[in-house]
C-alpha cells in the first residue's frame, strides 16, 4: 500500500478537528473493533453515528441503515466493513457529502481511496484511530 493515504497532518486534523464520525458497520456487539473505536472517539468528544442495516441504537446514539439516511453533516466516515465492500461505502460517503473517509487496519482499497480523494475527501487507509490518537496526544 502506498503512503499517500497515511498523511500524518490529515490524521491529526481528522482526529482533533472533526466532530461527527459515521461508523459504517457499527453494531451493538462490544467485542467488535468498530464498537471499541466508536466508544473511544465518543469518549474524546466526537459524535458517533452508527450505520448498520439493523439500524439499532448503539452507545446511546440512534442508528441508521445507510449513510444517505444520516441527517446533518458527516465529517468522517469510518469504514468498518470488509475491504471488498469499502468501494461501495466510499461511493456512499461521496454521495452523502462526507468530508473524509477512514479505512481501519486491513481495510485497503486503493481505487476507492483515490476516488474519494479525487472527489475532494480526505482519506486515511489502513490505520487505527485508537493507535493514531495515542501517537498524537
Automatic annotation (TrEMBL):
* Gene3D superfamilies registered for this protein in UniProt: NAD(P)-binding Rossmann-like Domain
Q: Residue ranges of the CoA-binding domain?
A: 14-107
State the superkingdom: Bacteria
One matching Pfam family is: CoA_binding_2
The protein depicted here goes by the name CoA-binding protein
Species of origin: Actinomadura harenae
Amino acid at each position: 500500500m502506498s503512503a499517500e493515504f497515511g498523511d500524518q497532518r490529515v490524521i491529526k486534523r481528522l482526529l482533533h478537528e472533526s466532530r461527527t464520525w459515521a461508523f459504517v458497520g457499527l453494531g451493538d456487539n462490544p467485542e467488535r473493533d468498530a464498537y471499541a473505536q466508536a466508544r473511544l472517539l465518543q469518549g474524546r468528544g466526537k459524535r458517533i453515528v452508527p450505520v448498520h442495516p439493523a439500524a439499532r441504537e448503539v452507545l446511546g446514539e440512534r442508528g441508521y441503515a445507510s449513510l444517505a439516511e444520516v441527517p446533518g453533516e458527516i465529517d468522517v466516515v469510518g469504514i468498518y466493513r470488509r475491504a471488498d465492500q469499502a468501494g461501495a461505502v466510499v461511493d456512499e460517503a461521496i454521495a452523502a457529502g462526507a468530508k473524509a473517509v477512514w479505512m481501519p487496519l486491513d481495510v485497503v482499497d486503493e481505487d476507492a481511496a483515490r476516488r474519494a480523494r479525487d472527489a475532494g475527501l480526505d482519506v486515511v487507509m489502513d490505520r487505527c484511530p485508537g493507535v493514531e490518537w495515542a501517537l498524537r496526544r
